[in-house]
Amino acid sequence: MAVESTQDKILNAFIKLLGEVGFKSTTFNRIAEEAGVNPSTIFRNFHDKNGLLDSVVKRHIQDIDRVFDNIQLQGELEQDLITISDSFQKFQLDHREIILVGLQATFELPQVKAASEKVPLVFKTYITNYLNQMKHQGALPSDADVEAMSLHLLWLNFGYFLTIIRFTDKTLLISQARFFETQIKPLARAWAK
Length: 193
Hints:
The protein has helices spanning 6-25, 28-35, 39-46, 49-65, 77-94, 96-104, 110-136, 146-166, 176-192. By secondary structure, the chain is mainly alpha-helical. Helix 4 packs parallel to helix 7. It is elongated. The N and C termini lie far apart (48 Å). 27% of the residues are buried.
């Protein structure tokens, strides 16, 4: 197991606190306590909270650029849409704090807003390219509106993500497997007709 660097400890503590108490309430002292470092170490490495935020945003963007690197698509619409949706959900859950901060602090922290917007843009581009490929292969109707279809899948997945991270009422929640079974599979079948 790799040893976590001091900078990573600080950034991970900062991300955790962003999710728990928000940007304004996250102080160097709280970060230092969570990371197990001296506040001066944070200052020396990042100078201020904006320096921390910039580093978190850069790391987030690097992760976004690699989100679909390792998925294996089969050329079968239904299974591929589940695979793509699963990758999207995993990424969103792994990066929920920065995405939530982006949603909560849209006007105060434009760099976070831009980073959180990159996730749906990367997803949309990936799914649009995939659907165009499937259309070219004849798996989708020749008149399929790939742009609208990409947005549909994006909205469906993002809505599910927001639901599972924000709500606790069991009547509003379904498992990811059920989401795929009742939402993604029927969508794929409808598109393939």
